[in-house]
Amino acid sequence: MTIPRIPVRQSSTANRDKMNSMVRLGVVGLGNMGSGHVAQMSKVQRCELTAVCDIDEAKLAKYPQFKQFGDSREMIRSGDIDAVLIAVPHYDHTTIAIDAFENGVHVLTEKPVAVHKADAQRMIDAHAKTNLVFGAMFNQRTDPHYQEIRRVVRSGELGEIQRTNWIITNWFRTATYYASGGWRATWRGEGGGVLLNQCPHNLDLFQWICGMPSRVRAYCGWGKYHDIEVEDEVTAYLEYPNGATGVFVTTTGEAPGTNRLEIVGDRGKLVYEDGKILFTRTNQSVREVLETSPESFASVPTSVTEIEVDGYGGQHVEMVQNFVDAILDGKPLLAPAPEGIHSVELANAMLFSAWTDRTIDIPLDAAAYEAALKEHIATSRYEKKAVVAAEVDLSKSWA
Amino acid sequence: MTIPRIPVRQSSTANRDKMNSMVRLGVVGLGNMGSGHVAQMSKVQRCELTAVCDIDEAKLAKYPQFKQFGDSREMIRSGDIDAVLIAVPHYDHTTIAIDAFENGVHVLTEKPVAVHKADAQRMIDAHAKTNLVFGAMFNQRTDPHYQEIRRVVRSGELGEIQRTNWIITNWFRTATYYASGGWRATWRGEGGGVLLNQCPHNLDLFQWICGMPSRVRAYCGWGKYHDIEVEDEVTAYLEYPNGATGVFVTTTGEAPGTNRLEIVGDRGKLVYEDGKILFTRTNQSVREVLETSPESFASVPTSVTEIEVDGYGGQHVEMVQNFVDAILDGKPLLAPAPEGIHSVELANAMLFSAWTDRTIDIPLDAAAYEAALKEHIATSRYEKKAVVAAEVDLSKSWA
Question: Can you give the residue ranges of the GFO/IDH/MocA-like oxidoreductase domain (chains A, B) (predicted)?
């Protein structure tokens, strides 16, 4: 994947000295996520929030201390920012990121990186022509629980992976949530439901820890619990290149919901649930016992250890800091955005599987998926009954 | 389903007085299960083990205290038994049970009731013409954990079911196990693998607790971990008549394995794992919160209780006792064998789905499945490399 390099600002040489010690950041999109980022920005070292951008003047008016833009293209070309944090609805991640790259501006994008694989590839291609930093807001990668699980899996301590199972159903959302924003939970506005909005984190972590599957079969509930046209429940079967199998289950219609990740390998199993990581180690290779034991009903002795970690990581602030450090010091990104194509591809493959009622091979045919998505947009008969302006409203932000 | 009735012995009037106070039982099949049953039979009240039957004389020779038969038809017609416990390889359950019914002998059959749905239906039809007792050895129904889970689900305490998930992978079996018996883990000899041999219990409990799904989609690993032609790994997606979804995962290739049953309803979730039942109750209907909350990110307050039970039930002994009490007193059966058709149908539907690469509707087309199974038998090119005589050998018993 992308190896972060010391950036060379290409379109402007202004403020070069300042830039070496400080990143001037603009935030585009002042909805739920964007305003949250703005509120925390003072915690990030060597980062100066200089500009904000939104199409909604009322949102802009809350930030008189920053330069204000109603159009991201103007902010990107203003010379006031070295980097942009993109927090607009998903489809616009692509256009804004490409515009930034073409104008020498570093990009940190909210998840999902893009709505579909072809768009993600367009961003990656535009980025590849630059030396700019391109990060993705996969803040859950800062959580030491997932870091430890990844370490155990990637180090080989768990042995070769046999089976994965992630039940991640603690994404409960109300009817009010879906009513907030005409773009939300539509093919045209968001390009999907729980897979595109809530699960990018989980899909990213899943592939970050276990690698990408080679086949996916999914069943989706379309507006099963909510009055929406997109998926609010997914059950997916996964097959990995080594033959391992997996299951991924998610929904926004369940409470309190479950977050349980189980990974089984030849040397035991790892279960993460209720904030606790339990590692059940076998004292020898399971395959070896299976193949060589003279007993029919052999058991494999195990020991259980809890892998204890402290807290849940620096989350968004740590991600922005990491992005700033990558720009100023060439520090490796915790979540290079080109890796974000994987979670997009997984979400796309699951939807494509459910639409076509068949198993989808990965790599996914990006053009075929884009065409299918556009067909869903074109033939959509869904109309939102009412759009409620809630405090977490993103409806007027880059709709 | 079948309501147990006071039996009327039809073919023989001998020993009627004795029969009113005592059941004379014959065991057919002295392999692993049958010999285990014989060893525990003295714990069953009002049951006299009078005869044993096996085609292997060496096995019979171990039981000089009982009448010995080399052919089940002779035992059934001998007048020495009122009831037969069938513990031979699966295909023969059907022929022996029907023979018993036609000769006025009560039947308690090991699981699975039959290899495929059509055979199970044949047994049910033969039984329907009699007033005999027909029980199935679903001994896990005696486990108070499953009884309590069923009670919570069936009582409505959990609310309408939304999602089920059973990971039951603690069925580890070695190569030695599969090498013990030429019939084992072949289409011809057993008609399946983990679904037909290990999982009948789980499939029975699953439907006993949650009801039958209306659609099934499964992926199977055929001899994935062992040198066998049948399935030793299964991942299945289920859909229930009310729209609830489910997952069932099993394998004999994993150690230590997992046994975790999660059932989610409108009033919370129930999780059974590591011998512990946790019931997380919501303080109101989740659907109601979803539909009426003014908040976008509402949480539903919950309380967690552990449902404590004592031990794991009377298992096989309790099942035989229940069978005897049903014969003598008309006591309801804990596991009427006609209900066993459900677990057979589930196993068949999963295999049929994997064979045909499609989603299978339930009720399953029994004739189509039988034809497909026969096709697998006819075209099998599998040959066992070596048959090892292990202590738990069933190979010579009704092969």
Answer: 146-270
